[in-house]
Amino acid sequence: MMRRLLSASALLLAAMASALAAPPVTLTPDRPAVPAAVSASPGQDARLERGRYLAIAADCMACHTAASGKPYAGGYAIDSPLGTIYATNITPSKKGGIGHYTQADFARALRQGVRADGSHLYPAMPYTSYALLSDADVGDLYYYFMHAVKPVDEPARQTKLPFPFNVRLSMLGWNALFLDDKRFVPDAGKSAQINRGAYLAEGLAHCSACHTPRNMLMAEVGSQKLAGADLGSWHAPNITSDAISGIGGWSDAEIATYLKTGHVEGKGQAAGGMAEAIQNSLQFLRDDDVAAIVAYLRTVPPVRAAGQQKAAYSYGSAVSEEAAFRGMASSTEHHSLNSGAVLFSGYCASCHSASGAGSTGQAYPALFNNTATGAATPANLVSAILFGVERKIGKEGEEVEAFMPRFDQRSYVQALTDEQIASIANYVLKQYGNPAVTVTPAYVAQARSGGETPLLARLPHFIVPAGVAALLALIALLVWRRSRRQGKN
Length: 489
Prior knowledge:
By secondary structure, this protein is mainly α. It is 40% helix and 7% strand. It contains 21 helices and 8 strands. The protein has helices at 9-20, 36-39, 46-57, 60-64, 103-112, 127-130, 135-147, 171-178, 192-204, 208-211, 252-261, 272-280, 287-297, 322-325, 340-347, 349-352, 371-374, 379-387, 418-432, 441-448, 459-488, and strands spanning 77-80, 83-86, 229-231, 234-236, 263-264, 268-269, 389-395, 398-404. The radius of gyration is 25 Å and the shape is globular.
């Protein structure tokens, strides 16, 4: 169970997959090896292929290509807590894109978040992770974008955040506090495979950008690395090595399968941002690189959530209550969908079965032994109901789609109210998931509007009152000083 996603860009990436799927190669932590099929073919531009692979590993397509838009032409809307940020055009067009960038300009934007004109990027562009990239990889990425991507002259839509966040110069201070502009240095005490996985996960794949919680200034909390974080309405789970709160209870094969397909029976399935990452990036990584990421994740220090004693995937079993209410309402009765059980039967059971066991083959997954329903937060369960799931994976030469319709106000099936979604969620949690978790209509309304607003995002609401108060205080001070002088005279 989980959420939406991108589009025909998957077809473009699928065409690349055959060139990128190669036999095991010698691992180097700072640079993907050229696939054997490419390096052995005369006339192939090996550097271009390395750059193409790096662009896929860095998931550039997902953010820099709008739905139904041209590849890398920007315009994709990133709904940040501070407002909507539109991804830029990174095609080699000199009118609309980065065609005028030198390699040094490109490197500065990628690793320091500063554009060629000197203006600052917002950290929605994960330059804090890309800072780890080697000079060789940055050069190959630049070569690929300048020589293999088709230029699009139309500039992307401009980002216009509310004051004070529209003052990009403020990022100077943020970068001074939170940007560690250092390249990746292999750990001599770790294997080449683990170092390679660290370079991929911490740098190119920028896993911490989603899976690490952030402080009040929206910077990652280093002591909670990969311990899970809220992302708007969704929740990126704990992927540390902890056996209860993290993925320590998953086998290597299960983690690798999840990264390649977004689905592991009896554990969970990807949606939201993770579905995007798998659809556009992770499924196209070589098997040796996926194995390297898995090896690295095993070394991430475990972080246990306070009070958690069972893994999220360990909850629930098959059970059905349909016999208790089938035929109880007459065919002409109004408002018969008046409980979570009845709503579940009407909107969910046809795909997930009346017992919650899912469909044969698990194209529609079971609702028990499922991280979305067994988690300590209902975020992903509620978001899946609200926004649906769409994840396309290339498998054995064919595109396989995981799909669940959305039930929010944009639903083409049936728009459900906050109360109805809360009722369904509570029924599912009680029957198949973590019964200690409950959902209120207010929680659903908040998820529908994008999730809880961080303190920093609420700052503009206090700026005008604070400014008025400061002005009044200044006027009062001036009046007092003037009256004091007059008293002395």
